[in-house]
Amino acid sequence: RCVTALAIAPTGTISLVADVTSGIEPLIKKAYKRTDRVGERMYVHPIYLDHLQTGDPLPSWYVDSDDLDPSDHFEVQVAIQKFVDGAVSKTINMPAGTTADQLSHLMLEYIHDLKGVTVYVDGSREGQILNSVSEEEVRNYLERNKIVTGAEAVQCTTGMCDLM
What we know:
Strand order of the largest sheet: 5-1-2-6
Protein name: Ribonucleotide reductase large subunit C-terminal domain-containing protein
Low-confidence stretches: 148-154
GO molecular function: cobalamin binding; ribonucleoside-diphosphate reductase activity, thioredoxin disulfide as acceptor
Keywords: Cobalamin, Cobalt, Oxidoreductase
Mean pLDDT: 84
Number of strands: 6
Shape: globular
Structural class: alpha+beta
Distance between the termini: 54 Å
Cofactor: adenosylcob(III)alamin
InterPro entries: RdRp_reductase_class-2 (IPR050862), RNR_lg_C (IPR000788)
């Protein structure tokens, strides 16, 4: 007899291959620098790239993880957890400077509705893999490097390019 029927497994790195968001996560960042064993790369989401190139305003629905309050992250996980009998893989992204007291209050509010929680406070560890980049940093990068998207790219699909 089955113990569980549904779980939401981790999909962080494999989502990069499919060029999709991971699991129930929002877009991690509109633009970011990824530093790992492969090297250092700049990722720029196509909608954000278009905004930078045209100056058109970003749609109101276009948000990333940093635009959401930590309680929004918890609320989404709680909503999904109601329909999943196993754990839900989701990272509650917290802004740099989040205190243990702030985190404790959030955990006490939501933990009774969850089977597991993963929390990451931006900048909390040395050698962080994903790092935010400012709009100015992205613009400077774009001035020095051509970002191509889709079929014209071999090493740089959908705005994801190696840093020089």
